[in-house]
Design a protein that fits this description.
Elements (H helix, E strand, L loop, with lengths): L19 H10 L10 H6 L15 H12 L16 H22 L10 H11 L5 H7 L3 H15 L4 H4 L7 H14 L9 H11 L15 H15 L4 H13 L2 H13 L4 H32 L4 H27 L31
Helix pairs in contact: 1-3, 3-4, 3-11, 4-15, 5-14, 5-15, 6-13, 7-10, 9-14, 10-14, 11-15, 12-14, 12-15, 13-14
Length: 370
């Protein structure tokens, strides 16, 4: 007799397909491992570009769900799916066909970056963060978002926060020396220093519960749009490719260096809405922890990496710029949706009113608002 898996910790059920390729993949994953249909990878390898009629790899629902389906096999897998699918050659070929245009689109979005010497990487990271002109999502959630809109935000972020730190931990066996030690120091805090109830993923689960949301792992996958999947798929792309280890550390540094003030605002937003301290603890924890992590990430983690591998300086900056750029798309999507009086979620999720036209000035700058 089989024992049911605790749904809080995965694996999740296969999601609803969003197009022909994700549909074919979901159907295949329900069966024992086998070669995927000939031409399935090719169906996504072409027809990508910037002109009319060409799907944007960053916001195409079918592509992003296909990539998420492939990547999740390296995390907790899918309920009822044979674990041998993880390394099935034709599935890896499909994944690669989706990854190539995705990575190219992210590089275009990140834009040209300065060439810096290894010693200049921490300062260059700080300059990238200081120059980031992101839509005011944190201020909106702090000052005027409704409870329904805050619940939407938490629903989006649940895909990352319920496995927080896991994708960045893929860097550990690929590092040595000071960078490895710095990453372990950061990740120990993320994982609650060995206490389950202090793990950031568990603190976020409490926040979700206080907001009346389903706290099961990946429970809201069907409700979040492609741009949310892209934010998560980017970290998996960096984490699963050794050649992108520098980008992975730059991505983590950007997250740590831009965390304290937004999380303070998120926590104060929940206080304004009358939530209790248990609901807010996740955000308060990040205000304190990430103020310390910011310096470790820039100087010890990324600085330590490029001191031993100077050729990766450019990759570190790319990873940071990519993190900031995709988060801008995500923030613009939420604010544009709320400004229009609609939900930022899929499947007709409800909202109790617009925040106002707070994202209007970002419409011309981000593809998500185009």
């Amino acid at each position: 007799m089989s024992v049911p898996t605790d749904r809080r910790y995965g694996p999740a059920s296969l999601p609803t397909p969003r197009g022909p390729v994700s549909g074919a993949l979901v159907a295949a994953l329900r069966r024992p491992p086998h070669d995927l249909p000939v031409g399935l990878a090719g169906a996504l390898a072409g027809d990508v570009g910037d002109g009319p009629g060409h799907p944007d790899p960053l916001t195409d629902e079918d592509r992003q769900l296909t990539l998420f389906l492939c990547y999740e096999l390296h995390y907790r897998g899918w309920a009822g799916v044979d674990e041998d699918w993880e390394w099935q050659p034709s599935l890896l070929a499909l994944r690669a066909a989706v990854e190539r245009p995705f990575e190219a689109a992210v590089r275009r979005l990140a834009g040209p970056l300065p060439t810096v010497l290894p010693a200049g990487v921490p300062a260059a990271l700080a300059a990238l963060v200081a120059a980031d002109d992101a839509p005011p999502l944190a201020r909106t959630l702090h000052r005027r978002a409704s409870l329904a809109q805050f619940r939407e935000f938490v629903t989006h972020r649940s895909l990352y926060h319920l496995r927080e730190a896991d994708p960045h931990s893929w860097a550990l066996p690929r590092l040595g020396g000071p960078a490895k030690a710095a990453l372990v120091e950061i990740q120990m805090d993320e994982y609650g220093n060995g206490r389950c109830d202090r793990m950031h993923a568990e603190l976020f689960r409490v926040t979700m519960g206080r907001l009346g949301l389903d706290t099961d792992y990946a429970a809201h996958l069907d409700r979040v749009p492609a741009v949310t999947l892209a934010v998560n798929n980017l970290i998996s792309l960096f984490g699963l490719h050794r050649r992108l280890r520098g980008a992975l550390l730059g991505h983590l540094a950007a997250y740590e260096m831009t965390s304290s003030l937004p999380n303070r605002r998120y926590g104060n937003g929940l206080r304004r809405l009358g939530l209790d301290e248990a609901a807010i603890r996740f955000y308060d924890e990040h205000v304190e922890a990430d103020a310390v992590h910011e310096q470790i990430a820039a100087h010890d983690l990324c600085g330590g990496l490029v001191r031993t591998e100077p050729a990766l300086a450019g990759d570190v900056l790319f990873g940071a710029a990519a993190a900031l750029a995709t988060d801008r798309l995500f923030a613009a999507h939420l604010l544009d949706s709320w400004a229009a009086g609609t939900s930022s979620l899929r499947l007709g999720a409800e909202t109790d009113g617009p925040v106002g036209a707070v994202a209007e000035r970002f419409a011309a700058r981000t593809p998500a608002a185009a």
